Amino acid sequence: MRPTNMMMKKHTIGIGADYRQDLRRLIASALQNRQECSAVEGLELCRSTLGEEEFLAAVDVLLDGHLTMGPQTEAFEAEWSAWLPTDFSLMVNSGSSANLLMLSALTFPGNPDGLRPGDEVILPAVGWSTSLFPISQTGCVPVLVDVDRDTLNLSPEKVEEAVTDKTRAILAIHLLGNPCDIPALQTIADRHGLYLLEDCCEAHGASIEGRRVGTFGALAAFSFYYSHHMTSIEGGMVCGQDRSTWRDGLVSQRAHGWIRGRSDRDQWAKNYPDIDPRWLFATTGYNVRPTDLNAAIGRAQLRKLSGFIEQRVAIRRRLLDRLRPYESWLAVQRELPGHSHAAFGLSLMVRPDAPFGRKKLQAFLEARRIETRPIVGGNFARQPVMGHVPHRCSGLLANADLVHCNGLMIGNHADLTAAQEDHLIACIAEFMESHALRAA
Ligand SMILES: Cc1ncc(COP(=O)(O)O)c(C=O)c1O
């Protein structure tokens, strides 16, 4: 008998239970193999945390055939909103896109309280490229403000000094997982009638007095790039506490500017009967949609997220304890009282009076297979691209310069081994002792 379409479909679905067991075995053995091959004493900036569950979830999506944004994305958004917790979340294809949508929502001409071309948005001088670029891409002017020397986050005093009558928003970046001084920034925002936005791309699970970052600002952005606390490979989330103000606009801007997925789509359709509602465009927009493949992986990772964060935090605490003997030459990032650091990475700042420079320490570590990188983008005002981006620097940015010239970052990840921790500390001890001897 020749199989009918119906039977073929049944056959595809019918492989369910068996294929999952076989696949799980195959994936487990492949992962084991990979772990053995990569058991090194060096330290990478990032490492895959994808396990059997993520691989199976991805295969399920591929077999299911619903590949583009769909039910997995919706479920991930609901689960992320419950985890944070927040009123609504919208998944996008990266943290950069999440930042872009935040600024686009704020500057959309249809938003009566929105920002207008030439309005200023304050952000820290130490930050990431795609925290800053959306500000100018949406017609506003980024104002770079110095960071606090200990927290490496926006200095509230410097923010206050930077406010002018053109200032409309503050973009707080929780650098390397360290929560910003949100209470102080919120006070400034309230006093001057500014929007407060949060870039939490490095700060999943960081909190202030038990409340997670990403729940303070009007809108917040997260990244699920693979070096972050959890990953969907590429991916991001825009979150907000006030669905009625923001969600529909963000939904349109995520996907072409059309009305699909908006709560008010029926009203739009009714108002424009001559336009096919499937191709009815309400706002400007992009295509920054995720795929269900990313969302399914994200969902499996979210179930492990609290564990990942705990592990990263414990590793950072141990490393900070063991680095204490060297603190007269090496400064680490400090969190404020009541703030809980999410330990994205470990920052080391060579103090200006140390008998060696950052580059020397970096070369020493790299030669011993410890990967390093600058602290995020360094002082972003110094990046050549800023020659093409209209912006303003408020004051001297002296601490950002220190980060730029003296700072380096070492990766942290949930399954860093005790041997890797020991290797890092042994290398730093060796380096320090050689200089102490020479300095004596
Ligand atoms: C502070 C910050 N904002 C935004 C981003 C952009 O996120 P993505 O790489 O997912 O685009 C990053 C990237 O790591 C980041 O560190």
Side by side, the strands of the main sheet go 1-9-8-5-4-2-3-14
Q: What is the name of the CATH architecture of the largest domain?
A: 3-Layer(aba) Sandwich
pLDDT < 50 stretches: 1-14
Helix-strand pattern: HHHHEHEHEHEHEEEEEHHHHEEEHEEHEH
CATH topology of the largest domain: Aspartate Aminotransferase, domain 2
Question: Mind explaining what this structure looks like?
Answer:
The N and C termini lie far apart (90 Å). The strands form three sheets. An eight-stranded mixed sheet has the order 1-9-8-5-4-2-3-14, with helices on both faces. It is globular. With 440 residues, it is α/β, with parallel strands linked by helices. Helix 6 (129-137) links the parallel strand 2 and strand 3. It has helices at 5-14, 16-37, 52-64, 71-83, 95-107, 129-137, 156-162, 182-192, 243-254, 265-271, 292-302, 305-323, 358-367, 398-406, 418-439; strands at 88-92, 120-124, 141-145, 167-173, 195-199, 207-208, 211-212, 219-223, 236-240, 330-332, 339-340, 345-350, 372-373, 392-394, 407-411. It folds into two domains: 71-302, Aspartate Aminotransferase, domain 2; 305-439, Alpha-Beta Complex (Aspartate Aminotransferase, domain 1). It is built from 15 helices and 15 strands. Pyridoxal-5'-phosphate is lined by residues 94-96, 99, 128, 130-131, 173, 199, 201-202, 223, 225, 236, 376.
